[in-house]
TrEMBL record:
Membrane topology, record value: Multi-pass membrane protein
PANTHER family, alphabetized: CNH1P, NA(+)/H(+) ANTIPORTER 1
Transmembrane segments: 6-23, 30-49, 69-86, 98-131, 173-191, 203-222, 242-275, 296-314, 320-340, 352-369, 381-402
Family matches, as InterPro entries: Cation/H_exchanger_TM (IPR006153), Na+/solute_symporter_sf (IPR038770)
Domain of life, per lineage: Bacteria
Keywords per UniProt: Antiport, Cell membrane, Ion transport, Membrane, Transmembrane, Transmembrane helix, Transport
Pfam families xref list: Na_H_Exchanger
GO cellular component: plasma membrane
Protein name: Sodium:proton antiporter
Localization (cell): Cell membrane
Annotated organism of origin: Kribbella qitaiheensis
GO MF annotation: an example: antiporter activity
């Protein structure tokens, strides 16, 4: 095995970025997504490098912060990409996925884990960790960017892409209360000892703080960027895309200091900024800047995941873990989302595609790194199960994304159900 020192890592990073620039174009005609290729590249890289410090179990802090930053950048990107103004009827498919499908999915995974022999707290944690769909790895089935200019028509979004994008933008934050519930169940005992506090603070209070900070910051920065009296502060005129990164980090930091949900605040802030001067082409520049950062961070996460697999992160995987992962990707998510999407504007074929594409990824990595210290006895098995599920999701959804989206486009063109 070759041991790569600090200077060698620069070589690896440069090669990875070069491959990342080429892969999306190379794979455009094939049913192989870039995430699949990067995980494969990580598997090969793991054969050549010292893997002792490239494991989420060995480096939980690094894993948590890298995944955290990747999610934050992705949330800002998807928030800026959504054209549709927020509203109860306009976002009806999203609310159903969040309020029906997501809790049902958590309950089903937790119930399956408990029936297969897991402790209740561990089963609930696994359900919560695997609950969020991913705003990072699902780019092939999401809206591609903001429509700007005089001809932009926000209401003409592809409903499938919109549903998957908006769901991924919100459920990364809304998984947090359930992760806390699992931690409390493991550390505080019976639900009667913490249930009321959890409902009032972790479910409701911290969510409201996230929404308030995100909306307030987005509105303030939107007015500054597009309508400040002084050109010095009117960043849309000076074309300063770093506003998106400053907003991401600042809003997240402020919300965390106030003990709200920072992921939620960042997404709400992006939506609010997008609503300011909706047709201005500066939104496209902001989104393009954030998208490049997202790609770089995503490539790194996937490479490290591949390295960790080569290093043996899947060794503790059991039949129970395989059953839960396969059931989630192929049965639980599709069925719960299909039920939730009844009585929505989606056609039958669109409902099936939307239900099927619950991509699991970086969000699951973050939540397990965050809560893992409270579950040390089960941690190797949990990482093995989550890594298996993420790779399975990357493979299944990565192969299926291009042909299924093409099928929907053809059906729409032929006006078929």
């Amino acid at each position: 095995m070759m041991r790569i020192d600090g200077d060698g890592l620069y070589l690896v990073a440069g090669a990875a970025l070069l491959v990342g620039a080429i892969l999306p174009r190379l794979l455009r005609r094939y049913a192989i997504s870039a995430p699949i290729a990067f995980v494969g590249a990580g598997l090969l890289l793991g054969l050549a490098v010292d893997r002792s410090h490239l494991s989420p179990i060995a480096e939980p802090g690094l894993t948590k912060h890298l995944a955290e930053l990747t999610i934050l950048i992705a949330l800002m990107g998807v928030g800026l990409a959504i054209d549709r103004p927020i509203g109860w009827q306009r976002w009806r498919t999203t609310w159903r996925l969040l309020l029906i499908a997501m809790p049902a999915c958590i309950a089903a995974v937790a119930g399956a884990g408990w029936l297969l022999g897991l402790a209740p707290a561990t089963a609930l944690l696994l359900g919560a960790v695997l609950a969020p769909t991913d705003p990072v790895l699902a780019s092939d089935v999401q809206v591609q960017g903001p429509s700007t200019g005089e001809g932009a028509e926000p209401e003409e979004d592809d409903e499938v892409r919109f549903a998957l994008t908006s769901e991924a933008g919100l459920n990364d934050a809304l998984a947090f209360p359930f992760v806390y519930a699992a931690v409390f169940a493991a550390t505080k005992g019976a639900i009667g000892d913490w249930g009321i506090e959890w409902l009032a603070w972790d479910l409701a209070g911290r969510t409201l703080i996230g929404i308030a900070v995100g909306a307030g910051a987005g509105r303030l920065l939107g007015k500054m960027a597009f309508g400040a009296p002084s050109r010095t502060f009117r960043l849309a005129d000076s074309r300063e895309p770093v506003l998106a990164l400053a907003m991401t980090l600042g809003v997240y930091g402020l919300t965390q200091v106030l003990h709200g949900y920072g992921f939620l605040a960042v997404f709400v802030a992006a939506l609010t900024l997008r609503a300011a001067e909706r047709g201005h082409d500066f939104h496209a520049e902001l989104h393009s800047f954030i998208e490049e950062l997202e790609h770089i961070l995503t490539w790194g996460i996937l490479l490290l995941l591949g390295v960790a697999i080569t290093g043996g992160i899947l060794k503790p995987l059991t039949v129970t873990g395989v059953v839960i992962g396969v059931a989630l990707v192929l049965v639980i998510r599709p069925l719960t989302a299909w039920v939730a999407l009844q009585r929505t504007p989606l056609r039958r074929s669109e409902r099936w595609v939307t239900a099927a594409f619950g991509v699991r990824g970086v969000g699951s990595v973050y939540y397990l790194a965050y809560a893992g210290p409270e579950f040390r006895a089960d941690l190797p098995w949990l990482w093995a199960t989550v890594a298996f599920t993420v790779v399975l999701s990357v493979l299944v959804h990565g192969v299926a994304a291009t042909p299924l989206m093409r099928m929907l486009d053809l059906r729409r063109g032929g006006d078929q159900d």
